[in-house]
Write a sequence for this structure.
């Protein structure tokens, strides 16, 4: 019987993946182990999580980053394991999660720690979005213009976070930001985010709603291209936020969306498990 290990944090959890995904694997006949990120340790050359030897698992899935202070140490331990066993390879949590991944698909984007350099990029052609690079759920995101208030918003983000992203505002994102879920290199589902009135952020955590959505040809082509790129980089499951023709963000660490799509009428967890297993086991893991 195939075995999957989930590494999860102690909480609080912003979605139910830590319950939903282990149950979905169990329903498909897998042996399932769940351990805390903090339980990772090296035991006479073997990397273990609690009493589970990672080298004996067919699949390993990290949900979230765990504690910041031990992140690099844990990643070094996990890097010792055959990366073909991971749903999302260890390197992805550093290089391909967030707001600067796959830059070629993003709107015009600038980033850095120098307020003068970022402010220099502002022009009058459109509004801009300024946001920290390391937050989720729309935290610290502001729509700004090239005026005193906008320039101060940039300085404020840098004072608080030390690094910020400045991105040209995409008008279509206000009404047509789509969350897509990708598993095994395929788009398996999506929904449309509906920002509440007067709000530019489409995050459900900020009061946005959700509605069923059928991808247009252009949206599907973009989402499928990104899904295939991620899968080729060793990422078996991710959420993609798109506002055609742009990718807005990728979430590798612990993407929400399964519960939302189920509330809209379809449980995608079994399909995700099947797509991930087919992709990873076909590629020689396990």
């Amino acid at each position: 019987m195939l075995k999957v290990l989930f590494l999860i944090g102690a909480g609080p959890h912003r979605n139910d993946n830590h319950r939903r995904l282990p149950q979905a694997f169990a329903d498909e006949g897998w042996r399932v182990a769940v351990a805390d990120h903090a339980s990772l340790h090296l035991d006479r050359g073997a990397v273990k999580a609690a009493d589970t030897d990672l080298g004996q698992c067919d699949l390993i899935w990290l949900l979230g980053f765990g504690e910041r202070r031990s992140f690099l140490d844990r990643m070094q331990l996990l890097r010792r394991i055959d990366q073909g066993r991971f749903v999302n390879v260890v390197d992805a949590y550093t290089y391909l999660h967030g707001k600067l991944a796959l830059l070629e698909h993003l709107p015009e984007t600038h980033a850095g720690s120098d307020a003068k350099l970022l402010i220099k990029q502002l022009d009058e052609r459109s509004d801009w979005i300024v946001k920290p690079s390391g937050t989720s759920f729309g935290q610290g995101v502001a729509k700004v213009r090239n005026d005193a208030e906008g320039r101060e918003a940039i300085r404020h983000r840098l004072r608080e976070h030390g690094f910020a992203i400045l991105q040209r505002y995409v008008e279509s994102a206000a009404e047509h930001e789509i969350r897509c879920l990708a598993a095994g290199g395929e788009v398996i589902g999506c929904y449309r985010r509906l920002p509440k009135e007067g709000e530019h952020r489409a995050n459900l955590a900020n009061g946005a709603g959700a509605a069923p959505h059928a991808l247009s040809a252009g949206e599907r082509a973009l989402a499928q291209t990104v899904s295939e790129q991620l899968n080729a980089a060793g990422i078996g499951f991710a959420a993609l936020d798109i506002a055609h023709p742009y990718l807005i963000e990728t979430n590798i660490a612990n993407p929400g969306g399964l519960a939302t799509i189920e509330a809209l009428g379809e449980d995608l967890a079994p399909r995700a498990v099947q797509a991930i297993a087919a992709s990873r086991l076909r590629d020689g893991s396990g």
Q: What stands out?
A: The radius of gyration is 19 Å. The chain has a mean pLDDT of 91. The CA atoms of residues 180 and 190 lie 4 Å apart. The chain has nine helices and 15 strands.
